[in-house]
Amino acid sequence: MTASQFDCQYCSASLLGKKFMLKDGNPYCIKCYDRVFCNYCEECKEAIESGSKDLCYKGRHWHERCFNCAKCNHSLVEKPFAAKDERLLCSECYSNECSSKCFHCKKTIMPGSRKMEFKGNYWHETCFVCEHCRQPIGTKPLISKESGNYCVRCFQKEFAHYCNFCKKVITSGWITFHDQPWHKECFLCSGCRKELCDEEFMSRDDYPFCLDCYNHLYAKKCVACAKPITGLRGAKFICFQDRQWHSECFNCGKCSVSLVGEGFLTQDKEIFCRKCGSGVETDI
């Protein structure tokens, strides 16, 4: 390189005996190099001159003295850090600000440590325990109540209902009959054994019966139509001298007028209105 070639590429000043910087094979005096090529600090906005260390992260630049945690202001030089919303944070500040908090102890769940998630909340693995036996639940099945989370064994021991029929634990919906819980599939007609969970039923001597079985075995029969009298859904019926009628069947045996709430006359097993029963011996 000749003497003329050893001049600043920008201002043409001689660089002989002076400090200079090379850029793309071309020499520059320090002043010109800093003016043309230096980066500006993200923190203080001042130029990072060639004599200063330029710290770069994702296309952004800092003076070494400015490369600090945005929250606690401790230096991040040669220390682990993380970015949050364009801010640089040391590991501790990032954990406190951004990491999940344990639902039990309320402390930060540090990055890299195992955490358990359930219903949108997080726990340290050692804090995610059965409320009763205090043993870690981990990934084992659990049952949750307002009072806490329980392993299946403790939940069954403390809270579970047992089917009145099969005596096994009821883990989902059940039927209550005479204040006792039943599995839906165990709540059967005592006559024909069909499931009653979605059926109307009647009770006799503390046993459930479907309507067909109950009517066949126990229901009184209407004197008029010979059909069972169940009393379901508020149905009304009339009783007289050990005989029963549906209210809609309690009619005069001759003119068929309703006798509900009216005086009537009887002869043998027949009932009559007063008009049709004139001359009948029994008057009610």
Q: Any descriptors?
A:
Cysteine Rich Protein, three-stranded antiparallel sheet, two-stranded antiparallel sheet, 4 helices, rod-shaped
Would you spell out the secondary-structure blueprint of this structure?
Layout: E1 20-23, E2 26-29, H1 30-37, E3 39-40, E4 47-48, E5 54-57, E6 60-63, E7 81-84, E8 87-90, H2 91-98, E9 115-118, E10 121-124, E11 142-145, E12 148-151, H3 152-158, E13 161-162, E14 169-170, E15 174-177, E16 180-183, E17 201-204, E18 207-210, H4 211-217, E19 220-221, E20 228-229, E21 237-240, E22 243-246, E23 265-267, E24 270-272, E25 282-283
Antiparallel strand pairs: 1-2, 3-4, 5-6, 7-8, 9-10, 11-12, 13-14, 15-16, 17-18, 19-20, 21-22, 23-24, 23-25
Task: Describe the protein's architecture and organization.
There is one protein chain. The protein has helices at 30-37, 91-98, 152-158, 211-217; strands at residues 20-23, 26-29, 39-40, 47-48, 54-57, 60-63, 81-84, 87-90, 115-118, 121-124, 142-145, 148-151, 161-162, 169-170, 174-177, 180-183, 201-204, 207-210, 220-221, 228-229, 237-240, 243-246, 265-267, 270-272, 282-283. The protein is rod-shaped, with a radius of gyration of 46 Å. It has 4 domains: 20-88, Cysteine Rich Protein; 98-159, Ribbon (Cysteine Rich Protein); 161-218, Cysteine Rich Protein; 236-283, Cysteine Rich Protein. The protein has 4 helices and 25 strands. It starts with 19 loop residues before the first strand and ends with a strand. The protein is 11% helix and 30% strand. The mean pLDDT is 83. The chain is mostly beta strands and 284 residues long. Strand 7 (81-84) and strand 8 (87-90) form a beta hairpin.
